[in-house]
Amino acid sequence: MRVAVDAMGGDHAPREQVAGSLLALSRDPKLEIMLVGRQADLEAELSTQGASMDRLELVFATDVIGMNEKPVEALKSKPDSSIGRAVLLVRGGHAEGLIAAGSTGAAVAAAGFGLKRLEGVRRPGIAVPMPALNKSGVCLLIDAGANPSCRPHHLEQYGVMGANYFREIFECASPRVAVVSIGEEEAKGNELTREATKLLRQGELNFVGNIEGRGLFGGDCEVAVADGFVGNIILKASQGCAEMILGKIHQRIGKEQPELMRELFGMTDYAEFGGAPLLGVDGHVMICHGRSDRRAIANAIRACTRAVQQNVKESIVAGLARTAARGASSA
Amino acid sequence: MRVAVDAMGGDHAPREQVAGSLLALSRDPKLEIMLVGRQADLEAELSTQGASMDRLELVFATDVIGMNEKPVEALKSKPDSSIGRAVLLVRGGHAEGLIAAGSTGAAVAAAGFGLKRLEGVRRPGIAVPMPALNKSGVCLLIDAGANPSCRPHHLEQYGVMGANYFREIFECASPRVAVVSIGEEEAKGNELTREATKLLRQGELNFVGNIEGRGLFGGDCEVAVADGFVGNIILKASQGCAEMILGKIHQRIGKEQPELMRELFGMTDYAEFGGAPLLGVDGHVMICHGRSDRRAIANAIRACTRAVQQNVKESIVAGLARTAARGASSA
Questions:
Q1: Backbone phi, then psi, for A52, in 5-degree steps?
Q2: Angle formed by the axes of helices B228-253 and B258-267, to 10°?
Q3: CATH 3.40.718.10 describes domain B1-121+280-310
Q4: Residue among B40, B29, B59, B9 at smallest CA distance from B296
Q5: pLDDT for A294
Q6: Which residues of B touch A213 (CB under 8 A)?
C-alpha cells in the first residue's frame, strides 16, 4: 500500500507533513509513503527529524501552489507543483491515494484534471466528516465545495457515494442519508432539494428525507447531502461558530481546564476524523485542513489506507451502477 | 406607542408572553400592549401573575396556529387565529408592531398576506441578529427563510434594508454589508451571488464584498446577505453546532461554572438581541424563537419600539428609493 503526501501543502508544511508521514509509517508496517516536494526542503526536514528512509521515498517537485492562488491558473503556470506531481503518482499507479493539506481548490482541480472519474460518476464531491450527536459521532457532509452548481442527479450520486464511504470507513451497516433543506417536510426547500429527494426516495439507500441544518449536528443522519455552495457555507459557518464559542471558553477557563479544552477542540476539529475524501475520482484523495498537524496527517493517511482496504471505490461504482439501472428501468 | 403580542405563540405561551409584556411595560412608561389570544387563557394567566390592566389591553382570538401546522392552510382554516388577529391590529393602525414567538412560517405568511409591503420592496426578509466578533457583537443575517428562491435584486434590497435596520437599532454609523458566498473572490460563488455583488458594489452601502460562512461569526461584517434557503440553513446549522458544543461543556463543567454557562448560552441565544424583524412589510413585525422566555419577549418589544422611534421603515423606504433611482439611471 503506497500513499503520496504533498509535503509542501499546509500552514506547517513540510514539518508536520513529514512528521505525520513518519508517525503513520510507525503505526502501519505495510505502509509505504512517497513524500512530494522541493528537494532542499524535504532533505532539510528529514535531516532535522532524523528520519530513516525505510519505506519512505522522495519525489521532487520544484513548485508549490499557495493557499491564495487561483487553482486553475496556478496549475497551468506551475506545471511541476507538488500537488500536481502527487496526482500524477496516483494516476500512474505509483500510489493508491494522496494526502493534500494545501489549497483545497488546487487539490480538487488537480485531481479533477489529472484523475479519471470512477465509472458512472457525474461530479466528484468533497465529503467532510463533521462532529454529530449520532452513534458514530460523525456526520458526513457531501458536497462541501467541489461542485457549487448541482443538479438533482448529482445530489443523488452524493448520497450513494457518501453512504458507501461511511459504511466502510465508520463501520455503520446502514447509514441514514438525508438532504439538507429548510424544514423537514418534502414540499419545503427549493427545486433542487425537492427533485433530489424524489430520486433518493426511490433508491436503495436508508434515506430519511430532509433535515434542517440543526439535525446535521443533532445526529439525525450519518450522511448529509447538499450542493457544494450550501455545503461549503455550512462547513465554514459551523467552523466560525465553533471558533467563536471555543475562543470565549478558552479565554475564561482555558488555563484551569486544559483537558476539557483539548477535548472540545478535538470534537470540532475535522482533522480528527481523518480528512475529507474527494469521492468520485479514480484514486483516494484525502483533503486536509491547512492547519493540520502531524496527528491529523497521520489520521488522514490511515483513513486513506482503510478506504483502499475496504474497496470503497468498488463499492461506489457498484452502488452507482445499481442506481443507474433503476433510473433506466423506471424512465 | 402600542405593540401587539401574540400571547398564544411559543413553547411557553401564554405564561412567558404575558410576563414579558408586563416586564416591558414596567421598563417603558410610554408603552401600551395589546395581548392577543384566547379569552380564558389570557384571563387565567393575568390572574395568576396578578397583573394590573394599566396600559394593557386584551384582544380575543379563538384559534391558535401550532408549530407544526402548514402556515397557509392553517391561516385559511383558522380565520380567527391569534397571529392573524395581531396582524390585523397592525394593519388597522391599532398597533405599530407585533411580537410573534409561535410558528415563524405562520407569522411570515400572515404578515405577508395581511400587511402591505413598504414602498419599493420586492420581497420581505427575516433579519436575524447572530452573535459575532465585531465591535457591535452582532451580525444581522438577512434573509433567514422568508424567501427561499431569490433573485439578485432581492439580495440587493436585503442589503439596503439590513443596513438601515442595523444602523438605527445597533447604533453603528456605517455597517459593513457582505454577501455570504464560498471564497472571498468575486468570481467565486454562484450566479445569484455574483450578480448581487455587482449590484451592491454600485450602491451607497458600505459594501465589503463576499464573506465565507466563517466571516459572519468572525466579525468581518455587520450585515450578511443571503437567499432565504442559505440563510435559514446557516441559522439552523450554527444553532445545532452551538447546542452540540454547549451541551458537551454543560455536561462537563455546568455545575461548577453556572455563570460561564449562562454567559455562553446568552451569547448564542438570538433572543438576547431582541428577536428577528421581518423587514419590508408596513409594520414592525418581530419574530422570536419558540423557546423565548419573558426576557426575550421583553427585549423583542424593546427592539420593536426602538425601530418605531428611529423611523426604520422610513429609512428603508428612502434607501430603496435611492437604490431604484440609481438602477434606473444606470440602466
A1: -85, 155
A2: 180
A3: yes
A4: B9
A5: 93
A6: 232-240
Nearest by Cα to B94 from B126, B58, B125: B58
Its pTM stands at 0.92
Residue in A closest to B256 by C-alpha: A253
- Chain A, 24-83: which have a CB under 8 Å from a chain B CB? 70
Q: Which one of 2.40.160.20, 3.40.718.10, 3.40.50.620, 3.40.50.150 gives the CATH number of domain B128-270?
A: 3.40.718.10
Q: In what order do the strands lie in the sheet with B276-279?
A: B56-60, B32-37, B2-6, B97-100, B284-287, B276-279, B125-131, B138-142, B223-225, B176-180, B206-211
Tell the CATH superfamily of the A123-272 domain. Isopropylmalate Dehydrogenase (3.40.718.10)
Q: How far is CA B246 from CA A252, B216, B265, B267, in A?
A: 14, 20, 7, 11
Nearest-by-Cβ selection for B245 from A70, A182, A264: A264
CB A34 within 8 A of CB A5: yes
Determine the residue among A133, A143, A182 to mutate to test chain B binding: the one whose Cβ has the most chain B Cβ atoms within 10 Å. Answer: A182
B193/B186 Cα distance (integer angstroms): 9
Contact A182 B264 (CB under 8 A): no
Q: Which amino acid is at B233?
A: I
With beta carbons under 8 A apart, name residues in chain A contacting B215: 240
A212·B230 Cβ contact <8 A: no
Q: Is the pLDDT of residue B155 over 80?
A: yes
Q: Where in chain A is the domain with CATH 3.40.718.10?
A: 1-121+280-311, 123-272
Q: Which residue has the higher pLDDT, A250 or A120?
A: A120
Residue B47 has pLDDT above 60, yes or no: yes
Q: Backbone phi, then psi, for B34, in 5-degree steps?
A: -110, 115
How far, in Å, CA of A197 to CA of A209, rounded?
7
Contact flag A237-B214 (C-beta cutoff 8 Å)? yes
